[in-house]
Amino acid sequence: VKAFELNPARRWAFCLTHPDDEIAICAWIHRLAQSGNEVFLAWTHSNRVRENEARAVAHLLGVPQSNLTFFGATDGRVCDEMTDLLPQFRAYFDEIKPDRVCCGAFECGHIDHDATNFLVNHSYEGPIYEIPLYHAYCKRFQRLNRFAQRAGEEVWNLELDDQKLKISIARQYPSQNIWSILRWYNLFHKPFRPMALLESERMRRQTHVDFLSPNLPPRLAAKVKRTLTWYRWTHAVQAALPAVLREAKAPVKV
Ligand SMILES: [Zn+2]
Question: For 108-121, how does the pLDDT look when each residue is reduced to its tens digit (9 = 90+)?
């Protein structure tokens, strides 16, 4: 199964956490919408300002407003709200019946992202693709839009028009400083190729579903496990388990 596959019959759902996470995969979303695919976008967190920004971006990407969902979870506290969110995610997938679901990777970059990934994995039974956003929270400088380990990743190289689209999308979030972060990051990491992040989009089929062990190379995983954030995460996962087991549909993945 290919991640970047243009089959107009497939229904795609992108479960983002924060309005602006979609920048990482916006050219592919646009390409799918252009190709006539049914595309759904959902955000776990939003508030009024950020919802409006997400709606404007969806319009630019060609996704109809009726295909947008906002779960309204609290920024920075999604992992504490997983018990309440899980039945909502299950109802969402029952309603839209996607063939593919994409979400931010379980990569210990931001526990809100990991929480959305957990929710998707415990409410959708079909193929799940994860998108690298950034990792890991134990590091002072996080790595953007690259998996910590490349095994299984698929890369879609963007043509110039798609790169321009990505720049214009990244400028659509006046409430966030994402555009300056992207520029700063590019200058820091790639001084001779300042726009390297615009050159490709990446996904991989999710196979790691053990949410009590970081999906990272051993040294980085060990470092993550020594953080308070990881401690908080494992407690949140354990607190959400009764909700996972209640009305469990698929074999339980922990
Ligand atoms: Zn985010």
Answer: 999 999 999 999 99
